[in-house]
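Standup notes, structure subgroup. Blocker cleared on the iron/sulfur cluster input:
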Amino acid sequence: MKYLISACLVGKKCNYKGESNVVKKLRELYLKGDAVLVCPEVMGGLKTPREAAEILTYQEKLTIKTISGKDVTEAFIIGAGKALKVAKENRITTAILKARSPSCGCSQIYDGTFSKKIVDGDGVTASLLKLNGIKVITEEEILQKLKKLSDDKE
Ligand code: SF4
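Run returned:
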């Protein structure tokens, strides 16, 4: 079974700072050939590095802006659509996406004030994948599950 995984989690330097958010276990999964990678923000046409962006609102009209106020909503929507297409082409049923990202975050995201405050909600890509029946989990949930398994063994 292949997983859809946020590219930054396996070591691709595609986050907004031009760095990765590598998680060793997920990189191993990728190197074994069990991962299909997506970076929705880059797939949507944004450059790396890029300005930090947050979801301002999902109410009535989705709006995502960078910290300097540039509207990047369109790029996020395009990237989410492309990520969904990749998922469907590869018959993905589970995605492991980067926690709290405005694209990839699942269940929790930053609140749009660029002050590190967290609110309930999904990133744009995570939301679209879920709407299409794909299970989305964060790398943090995976690490917690792995830790529990190893604790239970001891
Ligand atoms: Fe990582 Fe997703 Fe952000 Fe790309 S859009 S850098 S994959 S969290």
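Discussed briefly. Residues 3-153 form one domain.
Next: hand off to the docking folks.
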